[in-house]
Amino acid sequence: MCENPEMRIGVSLRSTYSADPRTGARWMIERARAARDAGLDSLFVGDHHATGPGAYYQNVAILGRLLAEWGTQPSGALFLLPLWNPVLLAEQIGTLASIADGRFIMQTAIGGGAEQFSGMGASLEGRAARFEQGLDIVRRLLAGERVTAQYGDVDIRDAQVAPLTPEPLEVWIGGSAEVAITRAARMGDGWLANANHTLAEASEQAAFFLEQCAELGTPPTAVAIRRDVHVGASTDDAARVAEPVINAGYRGFPPEACTYGNAEQVADRLRAYGEAGFTDVIVRQLADDQADALASTERLAEVRELLA
């Protein structure tokens, strides 16, 4: 197990909204401000493509705007690497890291979904190999190397990028299958557990990841998990917001994978993740209503204090 004297609480902003385009973007900006004001430890956005007709605010562009609201705490984005040209991705990360006042973290995974991959003209087949090739290329480019390499069927020749990340690139690799967790221990600085697992499942995966790191002699910078959370003003207030969302089959998750209650109850439930070896809980808000989501984010400040 990791020693976790203080578990970090970050936020992963929801990127999909049914409001008109400018309202949805404004809501993301407001949620970033609320996370900053709550003193949260990190800010992230996700990655999804070919999403129409529903709006999805693309990570590089929206994060560039959100960084104007953020502070010196770490920030970053998820990149489904097999859907990206690694040279373009290295350029985008170098630029974002230069805008950010704090450390930039690249979250990454192999991704899935036939519609998403076909919509981007990419093949699901061979994506694990492309992931490993692409991550090696991104890291080498952002270390200042001039790179000639193979990426799937693409020949990358004599590529170099600037700006570079001000600090060495930190990479958290996501996944839940044993092969993905092993890859995270072998290739990543940290691991990001999926949001759809119960505490028992996530605890087993964390133990396996830490065993792999110990065998490799590579202590992780982070053992992180995404959790879908609502912090209410009271137990009844939390149930008012969260239970209709969960009972409607939220994202197909088991209900136990979601966390809600007042600040003390949420802190008690998140504390168990620290005991399982997790260093970071990355919160995504359960609430659909903007006022409820902002209020829950504000109350995360108290959750964070209770966990300290």
Which key features would you list for this structure?
308 residues, alpha/beta, TIM Barrel, 2 domains, 8-stranded parallel beta barrel, two-stranded antiparallel ribbon, globular
Overview of the molecule:
An 8-stranded parallel barrel has the order 1-3-5-6-9-10-11-13, surrounded by 8 helices. The protein has a two-stranded antiparallel sheet with strand order 2-4. By secondary structure, the chain is α/β, with parallel strands linked by helices. The protein starts with 7 loop residues before the first strand and ends with a helix. Helix 3 (86-99) packs across helix 5. It is built from 10 helices and 13 strands. The chain has helices at 21-37, 59-66, 86-99, 114-119, 127-142, 178-187, 199-216, 235-247, 263-275, 290-307, and strands spanning 8-13, 16-17, 43-45, 55-56, 75-80, 104-109, 147-151, 154-159, 170-174, 190-193, 222-231, 258-261, 280-285. The protein folds into 2 domains: 1-41 and 175-308, TIM Barrel, CATH 3.20.20; 69-171, no CATH class. Strand 7 (147-151) and strand 8 form a beta hairpin.
Question: What is the approximate shape?
Answer: globular
SSE order: EEHEEHEHEHHEEEHEHEHEHEH
CATH class of the largest domain: Alpha Beta
Please mark out the parts with pLDDT under 50 across 5 or more consecutive residues, or reply none: none
Radius of gyration: 19 Å
Distance between termini? 18 Å
CATH superfamily of the largest domain: Luciferase-like domain
| Number of separate helices | 10
Q: Quickly count the domains.
A: 2
**SSE class:** alpha/beta
Number of strands: 13
